Target: LRRNT domain-containing protein
Amino acid sequence: MRLAPQPSAQPLRLVVLLLLAAAVSTSPVLSTGCPDRCVCDDQLVVQCAGQHLTTFPVNLPLATRQLIISNNRIVELPPLALNYLSDLVYLDCSNNSLTEISESTFGNLRKLAYLDLSFNTLIRIEDRTFGPLASLVMLRMTDNPGLSEIHQDAFVENAALQVLDVSRNNLTAVNITSLIALPTLRSVGLSGNPWSCECDNEDLCLWVHLEGFKFQGFISCSYIVGLQLRTLCHQTLGSWDYLFFVVIGFVIFAAVPPVNFQDCHEVQLDCGPTESV
Ligand SMILES: *[C@@H]1O[C@H](CO)[C@@H](O)[C@H](O)[C@H]1NC(C)=O
Ligand SMILES: *[C@@H]1O[C@H](CO)[C@@H](O)[C@H](O)[C@H]1NC(C)=O
Ligand SMILES: *[C@@H]1O[C@H](CO)[C@@H](O)[C@H](O)[C@H]1NC(C)=O
Model:
């Protein structure tokens, strides 16, 4: 049996639309002007870097395509104001005081291709945070010293993602299941995190070795440590595991281009002495 349509749905929608229209016509975020202390150009670039801002700028042109609010002390990205900017392609929020990004923060930014959240004070990333960003190509989220958790499904919907940099955070583990599935991912920055050498990073170790060319810099978690982790994490090795070793070994020697050792100055995944594993 089909559910009858809710009799109140249509009027309710109308009310919501009217309210939205009212909000739009009075909203300070919608204007053709330019926010205080920012510079706006006719290419729809709004530049507000280093202006001692503590709150997100108001009075942003509705058609803004690039917004640069780096080097301020902004503590929050207000979802309502941000989501009016549906043409936004480039958003640089680096070097602020952001501690939290809510599920609705980026809800309407479907054209956003570049997002920089580096040098903030983020602590964790939830699963839906980046979900709406269907066009996101590059995400920089480095140098958040307390960032210790990224939900395993945080990037599931970012099918356009090519470059992800989570260097110099406080990450000990990352579940790579959804990263592996991203079709165009070609570069991942992992350096400067306190990666653990426990079984939960076994897959990360092997992935790094299998696709070393994707990783900026070099990861010290060697193929051997990866294999040792696999041996230790699977108390008894089945025939599948031996097959796995053979396949992995073959792929490494046959297919992986050499890692660029010029970028290898940073030891990233500090797996330490194998006895401690
Ligand atoms: C962050 O911004 C401040 C100004 O608010 C500036 O002095 C500092 O150098 C910037 N830090 C980085 C890492 O860019
Ligand atoms: C990093 O995470 C650990 C727990 O994994 C925590 O004890 C430590 O305080 C965190 N560091 C910072 C700077 O928040
Ligand atoms: C990693 O995440 C996937 C879902 O994305 C989940 O099925 C799997 O159990 C997780 N692995 C670990 C080791 O937590």
